[in-house]
Amino acid sequence: MSRDAAGGRVLVVVPGTADGLETADSRGEDDVSAGSEGGDSRNRDEDMGGDAADRGAPFLRGGKPVSDPEAGAGEEGEEAEYSDENGPAKPSDRDGSTPGAGGSAGRPCDPEAVLAVLEEELDAEVVVRCGETATEYVSELGPTLDCVVVLGDDRQLIHDLIEEGSVTTIVCEPPVIGRIDDSVVGEDSTGELVERVRVELQNDLTRNDLRESNARLAALSHYAEDITACETVDAVVDRTLEATTDALAFDYCVVFLVEGERLVPRASALPEPGVNTADVTEGIAGRTLASGEAEIVEDIQSDPDAIPEHGDLHGGLSVPIGERGVIQVASTDRDAFDERDREFVEILAGYTREALERIEREVTLRTERDRLHAFFGDLPVPAVHVERRDGVTAVREANRAYAGQFGEIEPGTRLSEVVRSETERRQYESALDTETVTTGTVDRTSGDDAAGEFALSVVPVSPPGTAECAYGIYIDQTVGLLDALSFRNACD
């Protein structure tokens, strides 16, 4: 389904020991200043064994320490902490005031101001947690997050988030803004932070779209095997409906098939009342069938061709199944479908069309075979049905006249065991090889051991997708001559 490119979920980790944001509004301006410069930092330093208080310790990026081993305490050491691929931050960049919400350089950023900007600039859900609960939150709900923003330089927290490794972590301690593995110095720290978060949201959206597409394709491939293996039309439409609701996760769907001049709903996952049969030219389905092109409908209720049956359904997607029908998907939301949805349903419709075409061919072949078999069985002259598989020709069936003239044949008996001469065998093989009718004369012995001469015609009949087949028809030349003489005498 379509989704806004903005959006997503961002976890913002603020200094403190309780979830939620403590600002000047809740504890007074002096307390905020004191807590920022002393209380919170000292508490975290004690909890982490003094690691965070060691300003000369390496700043973790990408799970690795980044520092200048020659750097000492003081200004030179701080430059090493925030070094990036463009070199260490200049002292002038860290002194003085940083415009925006960052406050003075070297001091922790103002969480209240940063959060206000993030919520204003980003169309995303902003979740606020303190450092003590942030790692647990990421561990449990990491897949629902697009990125984590840490306001400050809490080294142990940064290390824990790196170890967790499930989402991108962005650190904000003006004037340095950046991902764990890439820091930059900017004049507008909060603006740079917003841009970095926006980029991560878009990147995560792209990754999520790719994962969703791969998951849908994998699910469709599973259903493709099921659909193409179906033996009946009912089974095909039922599996198509399941694929639409399960693999593609659409709530409402109906599968129409063309029957004569009508579009008949053969499978439906729509609310009551049910969908009615319509003329092949009526409704959005009729329009789709006529154009042969899939279409996305922003609002079914306002479409001039729609047949209103469900007032709570709005967004629609209508995809043809070749000339055999239409798959329609609907949603209670307007403009609910995008091009990706269209492509996936088109793939599914292709599987359905192939399955229906195969079943139609098989039905046609079975009908033809049944008619031919009936004709074969009722022939008044001896005839056999032979089949060649893997180079071996065998008798599949003999009709009643053959059994009465030459005796019964066990189905599957090799042709070489049935025919009495090499000439007769070669005539069958020639018809199968050339796919043309062959004629000749062969000697045969009847069941009463009476020898006779028979005219043999071998007619190849090999429907597509079947083995090589042929019918051999025997006509007794003696009977034919006697009939001719009787006819002449009658005329005289």
Automatic annotation (TrEMBL):
Extent of Acidic residues compositional bias: 73-84
Pfam short name (any one): GAF_2
Domain GAF: start-end pairs: 232-366
Protein name: GAF domain-containing protein
Organism whose genome encodes this protein: Halobellus limi
Biased composition (Low complexity): 433-444
SMART domains cross-referenced by the UniProt entry: GAF
Domain of life from the UniProt record: Archaea
SUPFAM superfamilies (alphabetical): GAF domain-like
